[in-house]
């Protein structure tokens, strides 16, 4: 374990202080607390159950009723749960993904809790992505970096170095393609993976602020700057950088190409590391690098999606819900749930510690020191739902057949003028 | 004028009709089914028409009332911040925040290229799905023989109908996997020096690939209908036709097929319904892609815009559902008219 501030003891003290805040007004919390969670995969599920157990231990008067729903199903079920008033606390995501529920008044504004609980300092890095309409609508519990995971051993065999500039990137890719491999594996059947590529290419070509303006609907999709992003993408597509038939694979089905060495790299979130390791790649074979810069004058922006907890507007036990959110946000808890045995991701609380894992360290270092442009959530969390839907279909269409670019941009522009 | 007096007054009222049990009983038995039908079918249909005139993201907001000197109006104006205001408390009711737009959704449908793609695909489905009927007939004729182990063959042919559509979709996706040595289809094509092809990844062929998968269980369904129909074919007529020298295609066309008309009729009904509600195969095999809704049909498009992960357009989705309903209505009306005519004799 490595401490961010090298003061583990201080961090622990801060954590204890935080849990104390919940009881600051003199009475302990009690009553039933209904939590709906989408942490349904085995490891996250265990984390959630353990978190509830530890919370109940600290607050024996609270009877937690925990409902864990399938992660994909939850994306549509959350509407019913929030409206029916059956939940006090729910899992969701930061960024524009919250917008429909914030607009409909279904999430509770917890700005006061942020102030009183000191979260404005400890969770400062994500405050922006939790803020909307001058309110703060939840607390984050984990995030993870995106970046390029690559086959170090194949790079060595071909005499390549991890690229830092676009020229190096293209030169590398040429060598890789010549060796009969694809530079990148990707599976776009479920669309969002192409969103990751667009995020990075656009943030490197036009910068973080432009990317945010575009996802916020302030820039036309037919703008020449957007076209420049697609042209960079086209360069890669036309040199054969991506595997064939990616539109027929899910992101998991695209993993074997990298494991078998038919493709040398994968632009993905940190959650790809676990399946790659399970498929037999050792840490010597597997490497990580930050997406290379395209325009050297542009500060690099990064994708780091944040997962969150929220209080429902019609919650019955607000006090217990607030206590639970403070508990989740505490440095101690975030250190524990994000370590390699549990979620294997990055804690949000500035006082918590990052587990000593090659990729977590690399990601943490990158996000803390080298994401000077800014930290984005992800295309489908930064753009409104409808725009994300159409745009990601457009990205897939473009990747399959780059000659349709004009048509794609026209359709996206029409969608933009309708949606915003 | 004299008044005729009688000892017993003549009862001018007609004899009281006793409602017999036989009149009431059928209605009583129908009542539960009708209530369910009305609640879960008729009411939602009417509701879809209604919602299709609104723009609505599918969400109801919690309602607040003012207390401690706050007015309800003030709480309303606070909007999504009312929850933090001590002067506003939950009423337990919800507010429907939809905006009336009249026929706007339908006008948008008219100019929506994805709607037309979906409609076009629906027509392709409808036309090609009819192949299941002759195919089912052929297989049933082939299986309608007395051979040892025929029951096993019949079961094997019927097997795909028992499978869930999701499983069928998965099996066919694997069959059509794109790489040269991945999908069985490409392996077979490889033996002849052809391929590899990516049927599901190509916007021009993907719909046909999915329909091919759908035809597998649908053919089995038609086959079972014809097998039962063949049991009812009158052996005496066959005998008579044979004496008259009919055989082969002529026997089939003039003697057997007319007797199979009831089976054919049902086969058409289930095939049309199967084609129009095709949804699960598309979700599993292509997820509506590649690109912009290239394999989508109306049912899929409706789901995608209204109910899926990114679907927040309930009004628009309802408008699509209404269109699909009207298309089905044309067909159902024709079906009812045909039934009525047949019953009348």
From TrEMBL, chain A:
One of its GO terms (cellular component) is periplasmic space. Residues 1-24 form the signal peptide. Keywords: Signal. Transmembrane segments: none annotated. The keyword Signal applies. The keyword Signal applies. It is found in: Periplasm. Belongs to the bacterial solute-binding protein 1 family. PANTHER family: ARABINOSE-BINDING PROTEIN-RELATED (PTHR43649), BLR3389 PROTEIN (PTHR43649:SF14). This is ABC transporter substrate-binding protein. The lineage of its organism: Bacteria, Pseudomonadati, Pseudomonadota, Alphaproteobacteria, Rhodobacterales.
Automatic annotation (TrEMBL), chain B:
GO terms for cellular component: plasma membrane. Keywords: Cell membrane, Membrane, Transmembrane, Transmembrane helix, Transport. The chain crosses the membrane at residues 24-46, 123-144, 156-177, 183-201, 208-227, 251-274, 281-303, 315-337. CDD domains: TM_PBP2. Residues 118-337 form the ABC transmembrane type-1 domain. It is found in: Cell membrane. Belongs to the binding-protein-dependent transport system permease family. This is Sugar ABC transporter permease.
